[in-house]
Amino acid sequence: MTLRTRAAVVEKAGLPRPYSSSRPVTVRDLELLGPLRNEVLIRVEAAGLCHSDLALVEGVRRPPLPIVLGHECAGSVVEVGEDVKSVRKGDRVVLSFAQSCGECVYCLSGRPTICDPGRAANYEGKLVTGGTRFRLDGKEVHHHLGVSAFSEHIVVPASSAIPVVQDVPFEKLALFGCAIPTAFGAVFNVAKVRLGSSVAIFGCGGLGLNLVQAARIAGASQIISVDIREDKLRKAELLGATDLVDASKQDPVSEVKRLTAGRGAEYCFEATGVTRVMLQAFMATRKGGTTVILGVTSAEDRVELPTWLIMGEERLVVGSYMGSIVPRRDIPLLLNLYAQGKIRLEEVITGELRLDELNEGLDRLADGVAVRQIVKMR
Ligand SMILES: [Zn+2]
Ligand SMILES: [Zn+2]
Fold first, then answer.
1. CB-based neighbours (< 5 A) of ligand 2, an ion
2. Are the beta carbons of 355 and 377 closer than 8 angstroms?
3. Best exposed site among 19, 209, 228, 308 by fewest CB in 10 Å?
4. CA-CA distance, 319 to 303, in Å (whole number)?
5. Above pLDDT 90, what percent of the chain?
């Protein structure tokens, strides 16, 4: 079976800004090959535009092109391939962008977000089940992180489709594919933020704002948000930040230290993808504390850390991909928290886009004026 799908394709990265003029994303009419064994065909309903998409368009991340953009979405199952037991036709699903095989040493040790074949497939722009399913004039078009959210229909590995039983609208559900699991996983699974502790969060984007909520739910007594935009700092305050640091006016390291009795925060989260900020997050972490690096950088980027402060001050520096979650275990738990009113999305979702407005949306994201913009597919 083959069907046609309108999809947002990037053929060339690193074009000059504004993207509303250079138009790196074009909506094309693609052929989509039907699901094979262990794959499912999904009708995408809503998809979020994330900084990782921008990093691809900028050429910071370099998967093979052409590629169908997007990795954060929700939709419904249209058809299942052979041997699929985890979802059925008609199920509502959230997509996981961390492809996993279920059989490698990482999957077997409960760490599917660093699955070997899954990671290789993501680098190659392919499905972990093998190859690509999008075609343009008979030529292959790649999958972004095994999802390619900005397409009316997609074929994904069944292991990437997480069934949803909660009554959550699709435009909210999409955020459970990236922003929310990445933030909540980083707080609960990776840093394991303790009750009453101090937390500093560098960046108030889709990730940073959700880190604030996660730290609040974890019971942190002090949540310091750092950003260079006043309006985003206000959003952080609405979500639970107890202190705000405007890094365009103040040195964030000395401010975080001042706010924490000169010691620094017990947990510092970097959510910007800027290496200078990663160093700031490290320097603002107290002795014995944990620095969590979450931003996307290029493979060549480096941060130089004072090594004495790692050994001599017993500090931990740790990274996390998609919150180091187990998607089928953790996404339903997060949806329960949302259904109970514990997670707010009003401050995070800042606008809606049509599929053919992604270039304008990317400009707003790059300018820092948007947090999460949602593409409604119909
Ligand atoms: Zn993302
Ligand atoms: Zn695996």
1. 100-101, 104, 107, 115
2. yes
3. 308
4. 13
5. 99
Q: Which residues sit with Cβ closer than 5 angstroms to ligand 1, an ion?
A: 50, 52, 178
The pLDDT of residue 378 is above 90: no
- Taking the CA of 159 as reference, the closest ligand is 2
Fold of 2-177+348-376: Quinone Oxidoreductase; Chain A, domain 1 (3.90.180)
**Residue where the block lists tokens 């002090």:** 222
Report pLDDT digits (tens) over 24-43. Answer: 999 999 999 999 999 999 99
Per-residue model confidence as pLDDT tens digits over 236-269? 999 999 999 999 999 999 999 999 999 999 999 9
Confidence of residue 299 (pLDDT cuts 50, 70, 90): very high
- Provide the CB-side half-sphere exposure for 159 (13 A, CA): 19
Which residues partner with 31 through β-bridges? Answer: 4, 135
Locus of tokens 């990236």: 178
DSSP 59-109: TSS---SSEE---EEEEEEEEE-TT--S--TT-EEEE-SS---S-SHHHHT
Task: State the ligand closest to the CA atom of 128.
Answer: 2
Tokens of 150: 């900005």
Domain ranges across the chain: 2-177+348-376, 183-321
From the CA of 371, how far away is ligand 1's center (Å)? 12
Class of domain 183-321: alpha beta
Q: pTM of the prediction?
A: 0.96
Sign of CA dihedral 11, 162, 365, 246: negative
**How crowded is the C-beta side of 65, counted as CA atoms within 13 Å?**
17
pLDDT at 281: 98
